[in-house]
Amino acid sequence: MKKHIEITVVAAALLFPAHGVRAQTSKMTASNERPRVNGTFIDQLSGQGVFTGTIEIARFEVQYNATVAIGTLAGALADSQGNPIGRVNQQGVLPVTRVTSTCDILRVELGPGDVEMLGVSVHLERDVLGITPRDGSPHMLGSLLCASTKLLDSNPAPDAIAAALNNVFDVIRAPR
Fold it and tell me: Which ranges of the chain would DSSP assign to H, the alpha helix?
């Protein structure tokens, strides 16, 4: 585990130099629109390589009767020795495995899932995205979170879940 962390840190330092990192400002998207994603793959040395990055969620859809998050994966791959393989900036689809809500927080579990990146199959780990009223217009988003709670209590179809999640993300992206 320690080696996995060290490889991730080395890869991030090599592929994301300090001069390329911008501080988060109020004009950037909310951090929950770009949840962290991490994954592993078997490299050419038969070792465990790593992917570290984010997914910028564009929308939610239904595929094969299940809700999925579709967005842009951005990050970097490193081999089992910590050597950079390359940067990734591509579309990805992750399953939405669970959605729970109260009037105070909407929790969306993304993944796990497998995505082809730079010619290797990367297994992305599960991540939990938390959305609160302060991530958008508090009055509008708070009302949507409460409505989501009522919707989820009714055991909705995947298309209703995708529509509710898209509504929440529309409010998050709207200018304040």
Answer: 2-15, 138-153, 158-173
pLDDT at 9 over 50: no
- pLDDT tens-digit profile of 91-111? 999 999 999 999 999 999 999
Q: What is the pTM of this model?
A: 0.78
Task: Report the 10 Å Cβ neighbour count for 169.
Answer: 22
Question: How many domains are contained in the chain?
Answer: 1
The total of other beta-carbon atoms located within 10 Å of residue 151's CB is 17
Q: What is the strand order of the sheet 36-42 is part of?
A: 113-117, 120-124, 36-42, 48-63, 66-78, 84-101, 106-110, 127-131
- State how far the Cα of 100 lies from the Cα of 167, in Å rounded to an integer: 15
C-alpha–C-alpha distance, residues 176 and 169, integer Å = 13
Question: What is the span of the domain harbouring residue 144?
Answer: 2-22+29-173
Closest CA to 7 of 85, 71, 69: 85
